[in-house]
Each structure stands twice: as structure tokens, then as C-alpha cells.
Specification:
five-stranded antiparallel beta sheet, single chain, about 270 residues, 5 helices, 2 domains, Methyltransferase, Cobalt-precorrin-4 Transmethylase, Domain 2
């Protein structure tokens, strides 16, 4: 529900929908009744929560909602004297208390009809893994499993360090391999020998834990993926994924699957070549 809107666009009814639908705490959402306090233990707990989302799949921390056994029951809101000052305090905590520094994190107060706000924090999945809490010499790593955070063990840490480096190498290898094939004329459709423009759009998620995407659905909803310089296209499934190409065969878009040859459920890499 929260993923369909920008934080700045959230309204009380969007948060109320979480309660009405009984959206339970999970790997990607956690409810808190109060903001983190001023003592060191509460600050550490806040940083553990934030870093655990970044080291896992990302997600939302929502302050001002009461939960029971992970199910949201009441949206009472928060008592905040100065919202801007509170945002600066939390942002400063994250900036100084988590290394390496995180990017893309957002915070937004959503005002309720009872004149109290709810604070929604969106923590994106990070690609600078892993993030460590360094506040007051803590030096601890956390991630999430199910609806709770946990401290990473040695094997999990090794896996995150390896993932961070191998993703970069896989992306570089994919690009080099594609350019080599284009130069060699090994393209999905015959291309003229003239100079070419190549645009690769490569989601990092495709090289970590690929989601399952239905190519049939991609074909149905891919009407905005026009090859360069065209007003229409033909499409077909090939061994690499889904191909959009012009009638004149001088421009195409290839949606690439990754590992498996099963064409029906694959994550897609977008490749435009003309």
C-alpha cells in the first residue's frame, strides 16, 4: 500500500487502510507507538531498526501506530512540539550513527484528524552493504527476518560483503558481453552496419534476489516501451526474454531475463539498442 505513493503524498486514509486491512508487521514494515527517546539505548534501538531494513529488502518504519502481536490496532499519532527539529534529530542520528552512509532514506509526518502526526520513514534497500551501527562504539550489524530484526552472524556478514562486490562485477560483465555481441552482429534482429546507440537499464535487484515477473504480463503492459524513433512495434518472446522491434528492423528493445530459461517467470533487464 505504501509503495504506490510518494511519502509526501500520503494521507491519513492511506495509513488507516493499513489498520482496516490488518496489514501485519513483516520484513518490510514495522509499527512503533512512540518516537525514539533521548537516551542512548533508545537511540541505538532506532539505528538497529533503520540499518536492519537497509541490510535486508528495505521497508517502512511507522511511528504513532499501536500494534498487538504485530497487527496494527490504533493510530493515536505522536506528540511532537517541533516537527522540523525532530526530523533533524533523527536524520543526524542516522548520518552519524550508521556507516557507510545511507542514501535515499525519506521521512515524512502525516497529519491526522486528531491534530497529531504519524511519522513514516522509508528505508530503501541498500547496495553499499552491509551497514553497521557505530553509535557510541556499538559496531553491530543487523538485518531482518520475518517481522523482526536480528544481529548478523559471521556467515551472513560474509554473504553481504560478497554480494555487494559481485553485483558490480556481474553488471560490468553483462554490459561488456552485450556490447561484444552487438559489435559482432549477434543481435535479436539483423541490424545495419551503421553506427549504433546503445542504452542499458539494469536494475541492481536483478543480480541479487531476482523477483518473479510474468513475461506475458510484461507484453500486455509494455505499451510504453517503444523502440527508438518508432511509433509502433511488433513483439515476440525469444530465448532471452521479450523483444519489441520495429517493422523496418533498425531499432529494438530487448527485455532480458537473467538466469533461468523459464520464460514465464523472470526478472527483466531492459536493453535498448538501435
Amino acid at each position: 500500500m505504501l509503495g504506490t505513493k510518494k511519502l509526501i503524498e500520503l494521507l491519513e486514509r492511506d495509513l488507516q487502510a493499513l489498520l482496516d486491512s490488518g496489514v501485519a508487521e513483516s520484513k518490510m514494515i514495522e509499527y512503533k507507538s512512540e518516537l525514539p527517546g533521548s537516551n542512548d539505548e533508545q537511540k541505538k534501538e532506532f539505528l538497529f531498526d533503520v540499518s536492519s531494513f537497509a541490510n535486508a529488502s528495505g521497508g517502512h518504519l511507522i511511528y504513532g501506530i499501536i500494534e498487538e502481536t504485530g497487527i496494527p490496532t490504533q493510530m493515536n499519532g505522536l506528540t511532537v512540539t517541533d516537527e522540523d527539529a525532530e526530523l533533524r534529530r533523527l536524520q543526524s542520528l542516522i548520518l552519524d550513527g550508521i556507516k557507510p552512509r545511507m542514501s535515499g532514506l525519506e521521512m515524512q509526518f502525516v497529519h491526522l484528524s486528531n491534530s497529531k502526526p504519524v511519522l513514516v520513514i522509508h528505508v530503501p534497500k541498500s547496495w553499499l552493504l552491509p551497514h553497521m551501527v557505530v553509535f557510541k562504539g556499538t559496531d553491530k550489524f543487523y538485518s531482518r527476518s520475518g517481522s523482526r530484526k536480528h544481529r548478523l552472524d559471521v556467515d551472513e556478514l560474509r554473504s553481504l560483503f560478497t554480494l555487494s562486490s559481485t553485483i558490480t562485477e556481474k553488471v560490468k560483465h553483462f554490459r561488456i558481453e552485450r556490447l561484444s555481441q552487438i559489435i559482432a552482429g549477434e543481435t535479436p534482429i539483423p541490424m545495419p552496419s551503421a553506427p549504433k546507440i546503445v542504452l542499458h537499464l539494469i536494475p541492481l535487484e536483478s543480480f541479487s534476489s531476482p523477483p518473479l515477473i510474468d513475461l506475458a504480463a510484461a507484453a500486455m503492459h509494455g505499451s510504453n516501451l517503444f523502440p527508438f524513433g518508432s511509433s509502433g512495434y511488433n513483439n515476440r518472446v525469444n530465448l532471452d526474454g521479450l523483444l519489441h522491434h520495429t517493422m523496418s528492423s533498425d531499432s529494438y528493445i530487448q527485455l532480458y531475463k537473467t538466469e533461468s530459461l523459464k520464460l514465464s517467470i523472470q526478472t527483466l533487464l531492459v536493453l535498448m539498442e538501435t
